[in-house]
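hi! just following up on the protien thing from before. the input was this:
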Amino acid sequence: MALFQNYGIICEINPNTKGYTRLTISTNVPFKTKLIKFNVWDTLQLKKLGSTRSNAMIPFKVGEEVSVQYSYKDSYPQLVNMVSARVDNCAVCFSSLKGIDAQRFEVGCDGCRLIPEDEHKKRVNTQMQVVSKTIKQYSNSAGIKLELYSESDNKAFAPVIFPNNFTFQTAENMEVGQKCWVVGWIAPNGKFLDVIDISCY
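and the predicted 3d structure came back as:
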């Protein structure tokens, strides 16, 4: 059985009536963010040891940095182990890496060094304004097509947000003219924006 390991942040712990808990880990891989979703039946996997003075188990919480080990069964990830871990990010591609005490210099990691420089995306964390918002039906589901104007880049982007994106609910409530902080990746050609997070005000 092949084991995989990723560092990331817990972004969902959601029990349901079917008996399992949906656990979602957000992890960065070179120049993009992916979500690893587990159906966890054993609730002990969602707990960790408390203080060193006690053997009491306490539940993990959304927002915690963790390391997860997992395997695949029928193309679905199966959680093997989850522990608390400090997470650092590559200064170039933002990949989630094991935290270290030394400073990470801006020379890239093993992951992004394998990607040609002309294929590197640009990380953005900037204010944008909603120019338009349209709900459209695509081949697999409905999506929200946004037009976001970035004053710093002096251009508009038209990302599509689908229901499996954690920003979908925010996109549903957005209004034309509203200003938002957008985190994401701009494609090497400068035309496409992959949205990771949006917060509006």
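Residues 168-173 form the longest helix (6 residues).
The chain has a mean pLDDT of 89.
cheers
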